[in-house]
Design a protein that fits this description.
The protein is mostly beta strands. The chain has 2 domains: about 25-105 and about 170-230, Immunoglobulin-like (Sandwich); about 110-160, no CATH class. It is built from 3 helices and 13 strands. Strands 1-13-12-6-7 form a 5-stranded antiparallel β-sheet, with no helix packed on it. The chain has a 4-stranded antiparallel β-sheet with strand order 2-3-4-11, with no helix packed on it.
């Protein structure tokens, strides 16, 4: 399987597993630090810190902020296929390179929209005015919301709720994502790694990173950080 095909397969699996958009957050297991050290390499893992675009990325993938500091005395290789999340049953959730993602997700519209329908001396109902820019003025006289009508109708149109399609990866995902590369001795790098979606049905997973010498290819250690899963 080519690298591009593998990335597409992993992302497709992640999106399929994420149907429903339930968010999960990973945090250190109680009583265990979010910092792990092995063979001169220190890694700090933080979940729940994604604030970029798309805002609901953690409903589709599992973003983790990973800080790596290398004092091993050798150049440390950083590769996505050497970083993973592992469930207690041994199920692996792969790190997905953001550069070759060619998929979409949906997220709620977070700002008022400019209306693209024709209107002249038209006033929008007050309970819908928040969806539009001030150029579309609200009706300031009584206009009752009919919950008995709208409730069942919304159920027939589950895609409503003002969601828009987002092309992945976004600029924020690439700009904030941890790139593959090499950390020289004494160096460091910090950024987000995007994993396949971890289901909320799990209690915990282990973050696991193989430590590999970039020059010799020798694996000289492993860093493991246990993380609790919070739906």
């Amino acid at each position: 399987m080519t690298t591009h095909a593998k990335v597409a397969f992993l992302l497709a699996a992640a999106l399929a597993a994420a149907c429903g958009g339930q968010k999960t957050t990973l945090k250190p297991v109680k009583g265990v630090a979010d910092v792990a050290r092995a063979d001169g390499v220190q890694m700090t893992i933080a979940g729940g810190g994604w604030t970029g675009h798309p805002a609901e990325l953690d409903g589709t993938l599992t973003p983790l902020r990973v800080d790596i500091r290398n004092n091993s005395g050798r150049p440390l290789r950083v590769r996505f296929d050497e970083i993973k999340l592992v469930s207690p049953a041994g199920r692996e959730y792969a790190a997905i390179p953001p550069y070759e993602i060619d998929e979409t997700m949906t997220e709620p519209v977070s700002k008022p929209l400019d209306p693209e329908f024709a209107h002249d001396r038209f006033y929008v109902v007050p309970y819908a005015s928040r969806h539009f820019t001030p150029g579309l003025r609200p009706w300031n006289e009584p206009f009752a919301y009919d919950a008995a009508y709208y409730g069942p109708r919304y159920a027939e149109w589950p895609a409503y709720s003002r969601r828009v399609e987002v092309k992945l990866p976004t600029e924020d995902m690439v700009a904030r994502g941890l790139p593959e590369g090499v950390i020289e001795d004494g160096g460091s790098v910090s950024g987000f790694v995007y994993f396949q979606k971890v289901p909320g049905s799990l209690d915990r997973v282990d973050f696991r990173a193989e430590l590999v010498d970039a020059r010799t290819g020798e694996e000289f250690g492993t860093v493991t950080v246990p993380l609790a899963v919070t739906p």
